[in-house]
Amino acid sequence: MILKSFNYFQGLLIIFLLFTPLNGEEKIDIWKNKNNNKISNTKKINETKKIEKEELNSAQAIKENKEIIIEDDSLDASNEIKVFGIYDPADFDFNLNMWSSTKSEDVNASIKRLKKIKLSKTSNEILENVLLSFAYPPKGMKEKEFIDLKINWLIQNNRLDLIEDFLKQNEDFNNKDKAVQHIVDEYIAQGNIKDGCKKIKFIDSTIKASYLEKFKIYCLTFNKKKAEALLLLDLLREQNQSDKFFDNKINFLLGITEKTSNKINEENLLNFYLSSVTIKNFKYDPSKKTKKEIWKYLNSSNLIVLEDIADKQKLKDLELAANNGQVDDNTIFEIYKQIPFDLSTLMNAKNIYPTLNEADARALIYQKYLLSENNQSKVEYLFLLEDLFVKSDLTKIYKKFISDKFEKIGLDNIPEEYKEAVQVRLLTDEDLQLGKIKYNDKVLHQSKILKFYLGNENQKKTQKEITKIFKKITKNKKYFFSAKDLALTDALLKDGFTLPSNFNFKEESKKYEVPTNLLQLTKNDQSAFLALKIVEIIGEDEPYELDSETIYFITNLLNEMNLIKLRNKVLISALPLRA
What we know:
The protein has 28 helices and 4 strands. The protein is an all-alpha fold.
């Protein structure tokens, strides 16, 4: 009887197992977890359908045509397909396969070139969009290398906000400890320990780095959580991850010992910081070998002083450091104010400064500028001081200083003979802002049609405006359709607008050539690499600073690749007439 019941139960179990659908075959939304600030990177992705080329133009198409199948619980982690980033690729008209047709060596070569360029605001934005979108790695590039590419770029450009976004959206990745340490070091360098300690939330169980564990222990000590600090300290020592220097400093800060070493440790920023907060009357003389982050901490903490004004070599070292961006420029001018000159020397500054050493000469003219009572004299001494900085190849110190001083005087108060020279040196917010748009309906690419791309007009009204503007400009028999005009008309056609029948875009566009090597990228479906090449082309300039033909072929390529949002970014900068 027992055997019969067992056989009956066994039969039911087999039937149940045969007809139960496999959970692993259910479709999932790859962006679902992204809304919860987490990306699931722990499943093997296999193509279950052949995805048509046009379906690759959006992340949604991939989402609808892929299934994730778990074939075995013992899946080899090395075969997992993972994506890492910050942005949904569809936000910029990309998709997960945006790099799949591009060779890794081509990407690396392009990034290497970009590192040598001081990119403009627009170039940087496009680079961020393409580099930080979730995507599979380029052809031949391993997952680890692709992540390193993203993290290293973020660190080199000190994008703390984006690094934090990356940490929030990607649970575990290679070099995570490096990303967190950069954030920690940046807050230490700013002398902002309170906010820096809030970032220990990123130091989770996936990170095994003694440096960050030490910082966590210090933060607990800083926030008077002695018991928790001691517990972590014991764990660190058990793992042999502590060291003599840290033990000495943390024991002193925890009140376990009454004395601490007066040795200054420059091995890393945390050690240097611990030295500075535990040594009474802390003094430190930086040198050429001093690390950049230590220079930054010294600046923010007002620890850079020149105790002996007569020490000209020390002053020279500080000037060089300021020119390299290691010392705040204002520190140098504060030192200049302290250099003593007698009344006779100050009164005859213009005759005496050529006989002095370079630093004293700059200090004398700076003091003379401060003592000047009228704008004419102030401007003269500012230009004289500029010459002295140029002569010593210290122009980076003076560039912003002279701009600030001229702005303080006011352009209207500058003597007429100096106005043109002063305008060249002014670095106001106008350098960063494009200015108010002025519409000119006599020129197609400056007309009110642009309101559509600025988000100020709907499609129906824009179509009426197109008819109106074309009617006006075609009355002018001498009107010449420029490359900028064609950039606009190309975009209008791409966006579904109708142009007058008497306008032949195809014929007009023959005047301008699009580089064949870049056209080939559109044919090969290399959207991300095309965007990278466009960043190289724009480079240090803003789009409005490029020549008309370059603007045309850039927007034409972006149209061909259906990268409409990036195209609009270029159009909005390049076409309008601005006040």
